[in-house]
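Exercise 7. Predict the joint structure of the components listed below.
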Amino acid sequence: MKNGIEIRWHGRGGQGAKTAALLLADVAFKTGQNVQGFPEYGPERMGAPITAYNRISADKIRVHSNIYHPDYVVVVDETLLDSVDVTAGLKKTGAIIVNTAKAKEEIAGRLNGYEGRVFTIDARKISMETLGKNFPNSPMLAATVAVSGVMPREKFITEMRASYEHKFAKKPEVIDGNMKALELAFDHLEKAIKSEKMSLTA
Amino acid sequence: MAIKERMSGNEAVSYAIRQINPDVMPAFPITPSTEIPQIVSTYIANGEIDTEFIPVESEHSAMSATIGAEAAGARSLTATSSAGLALMWEELLLAASNRLPLALALVNRTLSGPININCDHSDGMGARDTGWIQIYAENNQEAYDNFLQAYPIAENPNVHLPIMICQDGFITSHAVENIELLEDETVREFVGEYQPEEYLLNPGKPIAVGPYSVSNYAMEGKKNQEIALENAKQVILDVAEKFRAVSGRGYGLFEEYKTEDAEYIMLMIGSAAGTAKQAVDDLRDQGKKVGVLKLRVFRPFPAKEIAEALRHAKAVAILDRCESYNGNGGPLGGEVSAALFRNKVMIEAVNYIYGLAGRDFTVSDACDIFGELEDMVQNGKEVEQYQYVRLRK
Amino acid sequence: MRTDITKINEKTPHQELTEGLMIFAGGTSKLFRTGEWRTNTPVFHEEKCKQCLLCAPVCPDSSIPVKEGRRLAFDMDHCKGCGICANVCPFDAIEMKEGNL
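Solution:
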């Protein structure tokens, strides 16, 4: 895509990768962009590998195919690295974000020689700390926004709060936890991006 | 004022239904159209519309009840996909022959077998000879806009035919994209109230719907039905013009994208046309004279208009998202070829079958097809006249 | 657009037929002289009739009119001569004769 980015999500049925893709489309729309958020459907079952996609652009989006050369890949479940070629077609100039507790170096060695940037985030830990349950969705969404830079952090946080307030109108107690998860994930990724830049300069 | 939103194709059609507030909706759920009755029944439960929703036990019953309601004098509709449409088949013909202007939101999905839930046009194409008007959409915006135009077309006294508003299953039905919506008030004014002149629940003015017709009358009746479908062509254009006035978005029987000076044209239906337009832009950057003709109205079939639009091209790729199992190509391939021949437009026409049961169609697939047309015309390359795109060989 | 079916027949061109071949009128079967199809004809012997009225409800073509509790003469415009009335009459008040009389 000339004036925009393409993102591919890998997750497992029930983990919310599709929901995350739709949420990203939602929040990007609210910042005035043209968006596409869509899942690739099969005989969907809990735990089966699934794929979802985003296109985000300043221009009108017309293409209706899946994404084969994404700018970014988001892996919501680390165990997919064993069975799915997650970096297939991923641009070298792009990046991959993996939800894992493992070290970045260890993950990087399992990406079929991918030469672009690799980011890791322990979304499970963040989710357990902030929500008391494993919902990797929110941290992964924040990580994706942080790495891709599709919108500024402030704008993202404001829009997400509005969206959670709407979505959880009947469960306001979970709003703060979700917001905290977004902030923690953003902090983590901003730090990672900064240290990456510093090592590049060095 | 246009409302800028983002929603999926199913949400967009449901939103249009809410704005129209039809009288009766019998429906039976089937993937990928299930969300439409689901969302509409939520609107009803929330008191946003007073449509009577009838949960039926099959699609056969859904179409039967829709026909009954429409004949009774109620503005009626249903939604379905794939096998659901197949189960309606007998009733589809009755809706048309009884000249009932009801609407059906079709979310295109392949017909079994092999069993598969993804998009192709075999369900809609299977119903191509049932006497319905069929309008296809490229994206959520068109699905919404087409649905708003459905009743003004179908209910026109020169038409009085059922109308199928189609969109690609999952590809547009489940993809969230930007969309511009009209205000409720604008829609209400545009669509208007349904005021049938004759209907069953009309005390003192009895009518007989669907009486037995002996051979001495039946053929004349069928001809009249065919004339109504021909009339629909002009009505579709008139309604589109009125729609442009309220929405700013114009529609025709088909859309011509950069075809004016095009030597090679790709003719297709549905969401893949957007992908092909991207290919056209990419190839135009390389100096190739290519274009896309996206067919919006498949029934009535604008044969003469298509032939004229292709007259000055060197070759056309006719893309079918449906196999006809006739050993000779897809339905669009057959009808476009006949249109070209009858109008003496003797250009090369290759029929490609693509996207069956959700097989993806990409910008590079479209570029390859344009490349093949060029190779055929310029270098005399022998090209299979009826072939599959992206088939593993 | 009410339908006058007397103006429609097997020579009517398609342009003059009704939309969807629907009939925008009621009770039009009265205008069909099904009595012309008769090959046997019931003859009513009024002197034998006890006005038991068993005949009227069994007539498939409603061709035995009843007024103020008494049956009247056959409606020969619509009687097809099936003979059911003669069959149910306990008093031989209805006799079937051959031919369309």
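Discussion. Chains C and A do not touch (no CB pair under 8 Å).
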